[in-house]
Write a structure and sequence with these properties.
- 2 copies of one chain form a homodimer.
- With about 280 residues, chain A is α/β, with parallel strands linked by helices.
- Chain A is about 30% helix and about 25% strand.
- The first copy, chain A, contains 9 helices and 9 strands.
- In chain A, strands 1-2-3-5-4-6-7-8-9 form a 9-stranded mixed sheet, sandwiched between helices.
């Protein structure tokens, strides 16, 4: 059902990669997994689901975020899905662009052809992958979700649409209002078609108005992020959260950009946030 | 003289890249630099010179080793040279292999054509680059040196050949006896020619016999490293150090491999080793 394709010891635990056939995405998929030293079949550990940004695979976060040191100490697994369906027969951007198609699944379920057959990353990361991981690996059903950029959008949307499914949520540099920015408009118009009303269910700012659960949002954004004003618009998130009375801890980090150097710098803060919610840390 | 080509805030400091014309290598070179938050022209900070392994550029360590968090706290800069000369006119492996030529300079001064003109990485990392860095950036002349695999070989050779130049030295998975293993024999026979006597000055085990300074060697190697028995041979280092009465702290790490997941796992140990020698940490 799943096959291990690599395993490296890392901070006393394991950084691994697995391949499996995804029914939801109708293709083979690879995902990454960090297992802390204390994970065992008898004692499965809570997991953070990390959703990566445009162009990433399952490997970028594992190699660049520096999360394993503290995750090992806290006893937290990290599950790292790919960012789109892959493989022969999976269509990419017709123009070969990097902001749509392969590496750019936007964590939604596409409704338009030729995307609808494979591009169902929402169902994959919310349902199919956790079920697979929890059935086959020493990982419990206590879940947190976080991500970067397109993956920050994904994390916020997954949490807001699924009350009770995640203990905590956080994001770095998220695309919070994809309906209103170029990356989102390009992706949504192709994956979802022209009816903008159907886009609202995949837009954090729109979802906040009707959120059934008041899960606090932890969000870090760099003030020197080159995408800040055109694609990220954190002020839209502030306004939407305030209007909805939704708890938001938005941190504008002076001088930081959009890179994994930024993500790594504040990763420990986010891991501790999730560890507290998962009961791994008492303060 | 040097131009900054990128700068990202990182753990309160900066991760940067610079380009400059290297006189020694007769080509343009790029190097990486981490500057901790406390570095300033009035208060330059000590630096660790990190020498990377086969196939790396200046970017791998900066992205994968997770060293910046503790280096920021300790107040230590990290200078990260490329692993070979680069650019138009610099010859690579005639067969396109990854273990010789581009990305594989072996931190020596070549004597044979067509390599001798550009392949002088030893002079570059020991002399030209530190002089450039110390003259133009807030980095002092208090130096430590470390590296991984081919770069571990480089770090040990640079330290052993230059008494007093480095306060401390360490290596992950180093090639300690290149004269006697396939990677080294291939590189040395081409860069240095058939006279094996001339190879001894670039071989850690050979240099230990005549070391003028008893700088302790800190070395970590993974027991599951796929290159352990064929290319690394840590037991040769143990024998040579014992025969020379040279202090060696060799740690065989159970189950770890050759990857940056291994390097990252023990990076803090190495940074603290260097910080103590550089006077940045008192115990």
């Amino acid at each position: 059902m799943i096959s291990e394709i690599s395993a490296s010891r890392c901070f006393g635990g394991w950084q691994k990669r697995f391949r499996h056939a995804s029914r939801v995405l109708d293709c083979d998929m690879v995902f990454g997994l960090f297992l802390p030293p204390n994970a065992s079949a008898d004692d499965p550990v809570p997991a953070l689901y990390w959703l990566s940004g445009l162009t990433c695979t399952d490997e970028n976060f594992a190699q660049k975020a520096g999360a394993q040191r503290l995750a090992a100490e806290l006893g937290m697994a990290i599950v790292i899905p790919d960012t789109s369906p892959r493989g022969p027969g999976v269509p990419g951007d017709p123009d070969g662009a990097w902001d749509f198609g392969l590496g750019a699944g936007f964590y939604l379920n596409a409704t338009q052809e030729p995307w609808a057959r494979h591009y169902r990353m929402y169902d994959y990361v919310v349902s199919e992958l956790p079920a697979l991981v929890e059935a086959n690996l020493p990982v419990s059903a206590e879940r947190a979700v976080a991500g970067h950029s397109m993956g920050g959008h994904g994390a916020l949307v997954c949490a807001l649409r699924n009350p009770g499914r995640y203990r905590s949520v956080s994001a770095f540099s998220p695309i919070v209002d994809p309906m209103a920015v170029p990356w989102g408009e390009k992706a949504f118009s192709r994956y979802l078609g022209p009816d903008r009303e159907s886009w609202r269910q995949w837009d954090t700012c729109a979802l906040l108005a009707d959120a059934a659960e008041r899960l606090p949002l932890l969000v870090d954004v760099g003030s020197a992020d080159p995408f800040l004003d055109t694609q990220l618009k954190p002020e839209a998130l502030s306004r939407a959260a305030a209007a909805a009375g939704h708890p938001l801890d938005l941190r504008l980090r002076d001088g930081y950009d959009h890179s994994y150097f930024f993500v790594a710098s504040f990763m420990d803060d986010h891991l501790r946030h999730h560890a507290r919610a998962l009961g791994l840390l008492t303060r």
